[in-house]
Design brief:
Oligomer: single chain
Mean pLDDT: 83
CATH class of the largest domain: Mainly Beta
Largest sheet: 5 strands, mixed, barrel
Order of helices and strands: HHHEEHEHEE
CATH topology of the largest domain: OB fold (Dihydrolipoamide Acetyltransferase, E2P)
CATH superfamily of the largest domain: Nucleic acid-binding proteins
Shape: globular
Low-confidence stretches: 3-31
Strand content: 15-25%
Strand order of the largest sheet: 1-2-3-5-4
CATH architecture of the largest domain: Beta Barrel
Number of strands: 5
Number of helices: 5
Length: 181
């Protein structure tokens, strides 16, 4: 009889855990569903490219002492094969664009030793779009903006940099995005 009671309790505990898990999932899906995606998109998508866009390298120098409102241009990409997007969040990683000489016919920035050296030293930008409550928007950036890996974007927001971190990463709390075509 003890084995029967133990199995019954285990089954009840598992059923309860599944129920709670499904309720948490409904709540988080409800949160994303309660956001007016079209309104959020239109408030964040910029109709024209903002002036004064800087590279991540220049942005790092500009925010070395304190956070600052900036415009940063880059390419949505992760370093070393990393997925640049955070699934279900309005966030992505952005890397520095290749130098102007990379636009020459036949030039491949991935094979150019000058481009590779320059890009290897450039900081990554962790872009995060937040709502009025300063919490990360629970909408995948790919769905919200229609962006994909490798696209060139210009992001406006408040940037900060912590030199004590092991990796050079600029945190950018974004309030606008322009997608270059």
């Amino acid at each position: 009889m003890n084995l029967f009671h133990a199995l019954s309790r285990l089954t009840a505990a598992l059923a309860f855990a599944v129920f709670i898990g499904s309720q948490l999932n409904v709540c988080s899906n409800g949160l994303a569903a309660s956001i007016d995606v079209d309104n959020v998109r239109s408030s964040l998508m910029l109709k024209s490219e903002p002036a004064g866009a800087m590279t991540p390298t220049a942005a790092k120098a500009a925010v070395a002492k304190a956070p600052k409102q900036l415009v940063i241009a880059g390419r949505i990409a992760g370093s070393k094969g990393m997925d640049p997007f955070v699934k279900g969040k309005a966030s992505f990683a952005m890397l520095q664009l290749p130098d102007d000489h990379a636009s020459q016919p036949g030039h491949n920035a991935d094979d150019c030793p000058f481009c590779k050296k320059r890009l290897a030293k450039a900081p990554m930008v962790a872009v995060q779009f937040v709502g009025s409550d300063n919490k990360e928007l629970p909408i995948d950036a790919r769905d919200l903006f229609g962006v994909k890996n490798g696209e060139e974007v210009v992001i406006r927001g408040v940037a900060s940099f912590n030199a004590k971190l092991a990796l050079p990463i600029i945190q950018l709390q974004a309030d606008g995005i322009f997608i270059r075509k």
